Amino acid sequence: MPKLLQYRANSVIYFEGDAAEKIFLLQAGSVKLLHVDIESGKDVSEPLSKGEFFGVKSALGHYPREEDAIVAQDSTVLAFSVSEFEDLATKNALLILKMLKVFSNQMRRTHKQVASLMNNAESQNQKPEDGLYQLGKFYFKNKKYAYTQHIYSKYLTYYPDGAYVDTVRTDLNAAVSFIARYGDGLRVKKEADPPPDKAGLAGDASDGLQASLSGGDSDPARRYNEAMELVSQKSYIAACQVLKKLADGGDSEFAPKSSFEIGHCLFLMGKYNECIKYYTQIITKYPKHASIGEALFFMGQACEGAGDDTLAMEFYKKSSLAAIPQKDDGVSLKAVRALKRLQGLPDE
Fold first, then answer.
1. Are 98 and 10 in a shared domain?
2. What are 243-299's pLDDT values in tens digits?
3. Distance (Å, rounded) from C-alpha 306 to C-alpha 309?
4. Residue 52 shares a structural domain with residue 87
């Protein structure tokens, strides 16, 4: 059954980039969606009407939220799981038609904005390469990492020797790394779920990865990037195999980084207790590493997954404090937001 939720004014239902597991229906009050306009780059506030669904696309598509959902006035909201919403939709043809109309209008608006961006590039005598690069840069700047990955992958396909190839590769690696660390909105598997299909390794791995598994590639940076690509593909067991070799390899840079990423893979596989125990050992081994704050954050997430909110809050507090000295404001902000959420406080 969908859950009835009460929100106070100025509280946050979800942030852009959060994992999308619920679909919401505004029953009473006022909620607004905040996002960045693709054409102007300015913030846009979109008020919702009573009886309107929101968070639908990201939840059904299994990708992170594309906007912030902010409560403007005290509101009552129904929260549906994806299966609950799908069950409702199959019994209500009018609801399906309404959703299709909304999605169609949104797609049309986005198409016009992209076309306008491309036309502006042409009017300024820019090459198609320039327009594609600027579009990818826009998404990267606004932390739309899934879109960044798609656009920049196309750029490298069409312009492998292009003028912006070095910047594109750098930003693309950063986007892929972010997606690998924080996921793309897909449900995290619980420990009771069936384990990932090990037979899928051959289909996911490249020739270079196969060489690294057999010890044929001695470049730690390349093997680490391959592991991160496997994480983004949700091939966590295969990624751990590569990361374990790097962690045991003794490289001063990639051994610690790989060790911390193994803990992240355990979290993504829903092995919450193993994740907490593993990170405890790694933090003891590398007490001054730059990933300490991030590790503590995922330990908090793991505690939440295991149902221990009290311990989760302790890890979030430690994460927010540990991330600041490492100048990782992103992790600190996520930890603070998670802590306030568990405490029932508004995110100001």
1. yes
2. 999 999 888 888 999 999 999 999 989 999 999 999 999 999 998 888 888 899 999
3. 8
4. yes
